[in-house]
Amino acid sequence: MGYDYCFVCGDKNPHGLKAKFNADGDSVWASFHCEERHIGWPNVQHGGITSALLDEACAYVPLNMDLVTVTAELNISFKTPVQVGETVRIEAHPTKVNKRLILVEATMVNQAGELKASAQAKMLVLSKTQQAAMGIETQA
Length: 140
Ligand SMILES: CCCCC/C=C\C/C=C\C/C=C\C/C=C\CCCC(=O)SCCNC(=O)CCNC(=O)[C@H](O)C(C)(C)COP(=O)(O)OP(=O)(O)OC[C@H]1O[C@@H](n2cnc3c(N)ncnc32)[C@H](O)[C@@H]1OP(=O)(O)O
Hints:
- It contains two helices and six strands, in the order ββαββββα.
- The protein is of the alpha+beta class.
- It binds ligand 3IX.
- Residues 46-115 form the Thioesterase domain.
- It is a peripheral membrane protein.
């Protein structure tokens, strides 16, 4: 099963969110439209969906640098509920790049520019051995 089955970005996962991430310099971004199937409380996007989108954005920052990582830590602040029918923009950028550890900050804002949630993540670069153990195949 390839990356196409990623729950957040995979094209082929029928249960997935199908978010498409784009690069802008060392930043990445994606748009996401909140539908009823994404809720927890009535009309409010589930915090796990919000977290998954922010986590994914944080993983795409090192991917955009040709680095394969896993999330070692993820801290999320939920500022304002995302409502059904809202489209949000998720953006992430690196704040510190070490050999093994990439620090990333991410935000989710609505079309009016209102901050919905923010995240700080520690992304750990996987060695080739770790990638192989996880079944991750890379071209490099
Ligand atoms: C825009 C377009 C870009 C192009 C895109 C192209 C292609 C796209 C393709 C595919 C995309 C598809 C999918 C995206 C994929 C995923 C997205 C979601 C990401 C996740 O959701 S992923 C799942 C959740 N995640 C885990 O499932 C991790 C579980 N966990 C572990 O796998 C281990 O825990 C690990 C590896 C983290 C560490 O294990 P380990 O054995 O390698 O590490 P070890 O303990 O030896 O530490 C080594 C050094 O890291 C330091 N260290 C360790 N932990 C630290 C921490 N928390 N904070 C600070 N430092 C830390 C130590 O202090 C030491 O430092 P030192 O070397 O200095 O001593």
